[in-house]
Design a protein that fits this description.
With 258 residues, the protein is of the alpha/beta class. The chain has a domain at 6-157 and 172-197: Rossmann fold (3-Layer(aba) Sandwich), CATH 3.40.50. It is built from 9 helices and 12 strands. The chain has helices spanning 15-23, 42-51, 66-71, 73-93, 127-139, 174-186, 202-207, 218-222, 238-257, and strands at residues 6-10, 29-30, 54-59, 99-103, 145-150, 152-153, 162-164, 168-169, 172-173, 191-195, 200-201, 214-216. The strands form 4 sheets. A 6-stranded parallel beta sheet has the order 2-1-3-4-5-10. It is globular.
């Protein structure tokens, strides 16, 4: 009996990974714990991929907190870069037919003037952004991949008391991002795509979901950090919109044809 094709999710215990599991958008989804799949060890990765009939990999696993990445640079490199490299090399070495979806970040962009598109010159302003960019370079060695640059938030977990009125992004709610990831996993586009919403200040975005949130200037937040955060990380997401609309048109056309 032929085994069902599986979608492998890495980082299932993180914020995005746990939401992907919770929303159940993917069929035949597996999300092994670290003891069963340690991405920082090549032999473990290779063995797991050879034993399972993996059709897609949604690579979410990462050391994602910027502050933690600055303090634990060796660990950040090991997880974010080496972990990704191990997955990529195992696929290439064994000539596996796997679509690789890599969740990257808007932190690979300079974060100064905003409206960055996929062809913008990469210039990360902190170590987290650098590790994600280096991981992107590994992913590009594959023939069937998609790099999703994004920023997301969970409207139920806005814990901070202040938010900047002069800091901008294209951040989207986590449940919407999960839906977009599922869509992009099943489409045929190969390359890099920005996925996000319209440009908005952090305060105006989060205020919708936390009524007692207080406004502040970005400098107040930056002054408490020993690494740089973006002023304007907003993205041009027109490529994603075109991919989405093309898929919708094709679906309508195929339905009409029947």
């Amino acid at each position: 009996m032929k085994k069902s094709k599986l979608t492998l999710l890495t980082g299932g215990t993180g914020n995005l990974g746990s939401e992907i599991i919770k929303l159940k958008k993917f069929s035949n989804l597996i999300y092994p714990p670290k003891k069963k799949l340690n991405i920082t060890k090549f032999t473990a990765v290779e063995s797991f991929l050879l034993k399972n009939n993996i059709n897609n990999i949604v690579h979410v696993a990462a050391l994602a907190r910027m502050k933690t990445c600055e303090k634990l640079k060796k660990k950040a490199y090991k997880v974010n870069v080496l972990g990704t490299k191990n997955l990529v090399n195992a696929i290439i070495k064994n000539k596996l037919s796997i679509r690789f979806i890599y969740i990257s970040t808007d932190a690979v962009y300079p974060g100064i003037i905003g409206n960055y598109d996929e062809n913008t010159t990469i210039n990360p302003i902190n170590y987290y952004g650098l590790t994600k960019y280096l991981a992107e370079k590994e992913v590009k060695k594959l023939t069937n991949y998609l790099i999703i640059r994004t920023r997301f938030f969970n409207k139920k977990k806005i814990k901070f008391k202040y938010s900047a009125i002069d800091s901008y992004s294209s951040s989207i709610e986590i449940t919407k991002l999960v839906k977009f990831i599922k869509f992009l996993t099943s489409c045929e586009y190969i390359g890099t795509v920005n996925v996000g919403g319209k440009k908005i200040s952090d305060f105006n975005l989060y205020k919708k979901f936390k009524k007692d949130l207080k406004p502040c200037f970005r400098n107040r937040i930056q002054s408490k950090l020993d690494f740089q955060i973006s002023k304007d990380a907003s993205m041009d997401c027109s490529l994603f919109e075109r991919i989405l609309n093309e898929k919708k048109r094709n679906k309508y056309y195929n339905t009409y044809k029947k």
